[in-house]
Specification:
The protein is built from 1 helix and 10 strands. By secondary structure, the protein is mainly beta. The strands form 2 sheets. The chain has a 6-stranded antiparallel beta sheet, with no helix packed on it. Strands 4-9-6-7 form a 4-stranded antiparallel beta sheet, with no helix packed on it. The protein is globular. The N and C termini lie far apart (about 30 Å).
Amino acid sequence: MNNNIIRRFADIETKEIAPGYFSKLIHTATNTINFIEVKAGNSVPDHAHIHEQCAFVIEGKFQLTVNDEPKILDAGTFAVIPPNVRHSGLAITDCKLIDIFSPVREDYQKL
């Protein structure tokens, strides 16, 4: 079987993409998939980017603020953030998150 199709998650290097946000990144031709572990109290400041972002909470509670409106997301909830929409985040508890970006996050490819 082609080794580019089946891979081991454990072989992906963990990178700190923001203070306290530890990620394993997978880049496809059209998406970046970001598996994140973050400890309670860590935040990402308000920002926007050209990418559509689907943000999933797998474990924990995460406050997502979109256009100055905070919402608490927990396991089983997700958000779809359109391109160029301002947003920020705060881990209320220790969290495991998955973000999917389209198109590919070229800035993350360079990490």
